[in-house]
Amino acid sequence: MSRFAPLPEPPYYAVIFTAQLSKDTQGYAAMAEKMGELAASQPGYLGIESTRDAGGLGITVSYWLDEAALTNWKAVSEHLYAQKMGREKWYEHYTLRVAKVERAYAGPKGR
Amino acid sequence: MSRFAPLPEPPYYAVIFTAQLSKDTQGYAAMAEKMGELAASQPGYLGIESTRDAGGLGITVSYWLDEAALTNWKAVSEHLYAQKMGREKWYEHYTLRVAKVERAYAGPKGR
């Protein structure tokens, strides 16, 4: 399975979530996998890209059709529980940015 | 040094660059470091967040004040050379998305 999200025609939304894991990551991996699957089943989901280094810094960018899709996903009850666990246990620090994608392309060209 | 970018007041721009390294990464690490320093010296630079896993999938998000800052950085001559090396040698695949940040926050709250 590709680790790249599709490239639909803009505009659409990106949620850029950067997070440093804490030392207490018990239950994190299973929850992250579950949330990935749950997100993919939501209306307006376009795709996700995610990576994390050995130091525990991860960047996950999820892509969504419109504001309604973002609002829906943020409020899904199992996701609310995961957010709470993240705040209270798994994340030492995080930033979340909502951004409207204006243009996009893939490469390398000519290969 | 923090691996998180600052949170200036939106709107501003995010360049979301997701890339899978190829097997030929000779010279890549040194160039990546150099480009990070060069980007930070450009007008309109706001910050950068970057991480890569052991499989070679990296996500780098750089933040910029406005379109003029993006256009300038894309055309800096040393950066053009790095882009060419990326296309021809270092990257198996990549996507680049330009997005306008509408809102942002950090957490966890209440700690």
TrEMBL record, chains A, B:
InterPro entries from the xrefs? ABM_dom (IPR007138), Dimeric_a/b-barrel (IPR011008), Jasmonate_Hydroxylase-like (IPR052936)
Q: Which residues form the ABM domain?
A: 30-83
Superkingdom is Bacteria
Q: What is this protein called?
A: ABM domain-containing protein
Originating organism: Paramylibacter kogurei
